[in-house]
Design brief:
The protein has 154 residues and is mainly alpha-helical. Among the domains are: 58-122; 128-154. The chain is built from four helices and no strands. It has helices at residues 37-54, 58-87, 93-119, 124-151. Residues 1-33 have low confidence and may be disordered.
Amino acid sequence: MAIGYEGQAQVNRFVPAQTPTRPELNPVRPNGNRKGAMGKKLEAARNRYISRQLDLTDDEANKFWPLYNQYQQELTAVRILKRLNNSNSSANGTEQIDKEIYYESQLVGIRKRYRDSFSKILPPEKVSILYKSEQEFNDELIKQLSERSERAGN
């Protein structure tokens, strides 16, 4: 999985020097785990939610889930790079902003590419439901985390 997926003849002015062309799909955490328990629980909850929303046939599910897992791995790889960029305070603020925009464009490129791949498996209505369901799940997660934080007095 390369990071530059734009299908158009577009020239990216910015390519971060330290960005690998193939970020590791499942970065290993310092303790050797690829995902923490909370990450696995969130992933399972997201997949259950999407599964309910899409109401996939057996044939659709057999083709969809491996592709969806690959899609999530690619998004995660770019999000990790984006998070690392944001955690490093750069003396050159413009460079950091350019990297942020670059990573955002990579995320959009992945979503576009996979939209086309998902459309080969699912009808357009279900692809639309997929993207809406992901956003709904994320919105609900943020809402619940915010409510927990308020209850904890933060």
